[in-house]
Amino acid sequence: MSGISRDSERISSAQQTLDILHEMSQLLNTQLDKETLTTCVRMIESGVNPEALAAVIQELRRENGRLQPDANAR
User: Fold this and answer.
1) Strand, coil or helix: what is 3?
2) Model pLDDT for residues 2-39, shown as the tens digit of each residue
C-alpha cells in the first residue's frame, strides 16, 4: 500500500469518525457545529482536559446568555 493510499484512508477514517461524533453531538443536543466539534476534538487530542473544556464551554454559553438580553435592549 502506498503512502498516499494510507493517507487517503486515514483522512477518510477521520472524516467518518467526525461525522459519527457530530451525529452523537446532535442527538445529545450539544449545539456544537462540526467546526466547533472538530476544534474541541483537536484540543482534547492535544492534551486539554475534556471536563475542563466542557466547563469552559458551559461558562461561555452562560455568559453569552447574559449578554444577549443586553444586546437586544439596544
Assistant:
1) helix
2) 778 888 998 899 999 999 999 999 999 999 999 999 99
Matching residue, cell 484512508: 9
The pLDDT assigned to 3 comes to 74
CA–CA gap between residue 33 and residue 53 (Å, rounded) = 16
DSSP of 4-73? HHHHHHHHHHHHHHHHHHHHHHHHTT----HHHHHHHHHHHHTT--HHHHHHHHHHHHHHHHHHHHHHHH
What count of other Cβ atoms lies within 10 Å of the Cβ of residue 25? 18
DSSP 1: -
